[in-house]
Design goal:
Blueprint: H1 2-24, H2 40-43, E1 55-61, E2 68-72, E3 77-81, E4 86-89, E5 95-100, E6 105-112, E7 117-124, E8 129-136, E9 145-146, E10 153-157, H3 159-165, E11 189-199, E12 207-215, E13 226-232, E14 242-243, E15 259-264, E16 269-278, E17 283-289, E18 301-304, E19 311-314, E20 323-327, E21 334-336, E22 341-343, E23 352-354, E24 359-368, E25 375-385, E26 393-395
Parallel strand pairs: 5-9, 15-20
Antiparallel strand pairs: 1-25, 2-3, 3-4, 4-5, 6-7, 7-8, 8-10, 10-14, 11-12, 12-13, 13-15, 16-17, 17-18, 19-20, 21-22, 23-24, 24-25, 25-26
Length: 399
Amino acid sequence: MRRHAHARLAALLTSLVLMSAAVAAGGTVHARTLSDDTSARARQWPFTLPSLPSVVEGGGWRSGHLQGMAFDRRKGHLYFSFTNLLVKTDLLGRPIGSVTGFTGHLGDLDFNRTDGRVYGSLEYKAAKAFYIALFDAERITRMNMDAQSTGVVSTVHLKEVVEDYTADMNGDGVFDGNTANTPDHRYGCSGIDGLAFGPDLDRSGHSRLTVAYGVYSHTGRTDNDHQVLLQYDVRSWRKYEKPLVESAPHTSGPDSPDGKYFAYTGNTTYGVQNLEYDGYSGNWLMSVYKGKKKTFPNYSLFVIDGGKRPQWGEVRGQEDSEQGWLLSLRPRGLHDEKTGLYGYEATGQYGLISLDDSRSYVAEASTSGSGDDVRQNGRAVLHRWTGQKPNPFAPLQQS
């Protein structure tokens, strides 16, 4: 009995700590409300979170700019990716640990509640190597932990991405490398960036890791107007995982994804920067840098309709006719009659975390300092999804 009483007391104290942190940071409790962009699934969604801080500072670092964020709800830890640096904080923005030493591009992040690890996209374009980096979150307990020597990072190679990135589309026998000004790179693939955990898109009832392609901005071709999403069942990935050794990139990973899907949005600048599954609405959010083709509306946020099954059809714009699984955009928000596309004008390109109760943390990035002390800053700011145009996110003000 004493053990159970202690457990209940510990749970109560944990809740109080979270509430205290929220109040200290200006947080407040907000009731759930249904927007015009929610579904029947949202009304049945059972998971709610306590009051959370309206702002969590990710700090300022001598690094690349903010790329993505992840949230461990159970422990109350946030993770910020700064291109070549991972930072772990508590809900008051106090640094707990960091992982350094990346020479590649660390992008979007997500937290896997099943295994308690942080997953991130990791690119080494010169080596033609694209990985999912898996961070042992529990072991990130001090600052400046080296990614290669401390054992807190393992990697899984994505063969499908390499094949599309290195595709010789004009048949001249030459790989043109990391440049947008080429007909090479199938679908305009520049690698990977956005990723998120969520249900499988083919509705077979399993959770999947979804990885989005980066896509080069190129206004002179028509085969780069889709967002390309790969889905993987990561339950068997232990057999593929290898330590990160940047001097000797490995190729241990699945031969192919468990699903490959296409969302027609028009060309964007470097594809999906942040991908997020929203358990409240059952939809997928794709935050992008705007495209430059004048024939498209060039929205900065697209929403994949999670209530519609993928349809087998033509992947538009390809030189040779191609069929694939096509995803539908949710018919809400801004609408371009000429192309039929729907979308929003919203931030989220630097980080997006859905709390699955109509609230999200949306990242803000900035630069400070000068000379030899230029720092990249990041913060998570609490918003509520309203579905309003043009920006569906409304900041939750301090009470």
